[in-house]
Amino acid sequence: MPSATDPAVDVHTHLVPKGWPDLAAACGGTGWPWLRVDSERAAMIMVGETEWRPIGVQAWDPGTRRADMDADGIDLQVVSPTPVFFAYDRPADQAIKVARIFNDLMLTTLADDPRLVPFCQVPLQDPDAACAELDRCLAAGHVGVEIGNHVGDRDLDDDGIVAFLNHCAEVGAPVLVHPWDMPGGPRLDRWMARWLTGMPAETHLSLLAMILGGAFDRLPESLRICFAHGGGSFAFWLGRSDNAWRRRGDVVRGRSLHAPSHYLGRFFVDTVVFEPSALRLLVDTVGEDHLVVGSDYPYPLGERPAGEVVRKADFLSDGQRHKLLSTNAVRFLGRSQHE
């Protein structure tokens, strides 16, 4: 077995800057997130007067982040925004302003550290503005973009979102799709059920939308897109989706030209599945060439040490493990192995 610190690339982590401008004053509107700083090492993300999520120094301090990377054997870490700041439900002009604020703070916080790879956010509700902000960010130093898995009732097969993804392919920007804005209610507001069941379901639904809505058929194969959290429940139920596509094609096929399994190879998923048996399903279904390490650092539902499930999986060959830990992520990022 390889050592616990074999080098790896982690494509799924998040950042929260320590402080940002008053968003109501800077962007307009009300009810924006704000940060209640409780100590030098702890803070609370607030939405209005509601406590949304506690965070620690790991969320904003690159030194702490690098120390944790060293402890976990992570050479390179993709750093993305935290989805609560996406603002897809707001007027586009407000979402443009907040994206610029957090994208610029991302670069300032990471301070050109070559081990920390910044991904930006965009106002996805306005595809033209999203393309413009992506271009601005790529010129400024961002490497790719994180998007939420839907904009209200518009999923990833929406014509405007497909146009944005086509632009990502044209400019060579990798895309990380992260579930967000999960439905709530009495049955889902207990036990973090929105995160335990809603996140996998959201990711599964958006992968199906890209397939059955014909998005992959309208996008070039050069698009590099990765779905967080192991692709949700997609791999487990792929056989059910194929069966439905064949037996109830009158309803299920939508705009797709092929059964769902045909589109394996068009996307990556990360390895935040925690158990080797779940990872084996992903290797068998999604394929060893389309799996990348992700941790969801620094949040408590993430994996620590990052990459542990890949390192513990005794069914992987050394070559497969190296793909999952490193070379697949290098390909997703559009880099050479020696960068």
TrEMBL record:
GO biological process, one term: secondary metabolic process
Assigned EC number: 4.1.1.45
Gene Ontology terms: cellular component: cytosol
Pfam families, alphabetized: Amidohydro_2
Keyword Transport: no
Annotated protein name in UniProt: 2-amino-3-carboxymuconate-6-semialdehyde decarboxylase
Molecular functions per Gene Ontology: aminocarboxymuconate-semialdehyde decarboxylase activity; hydrolase activity; metal ion binding
Subunit relationships: Monomer.
Similarity comment: Belongs to the metallo-dependent hydrolases superfamily. ACMSD family.
Species name: Kribbella caucasensis
Assigned keywords, A-Z: Decarboxylase, Lyase, Metal-binding, Zinc
Keyword Lyase: yes
Residues covered by the Amidohydrolase-related domain: 9-335
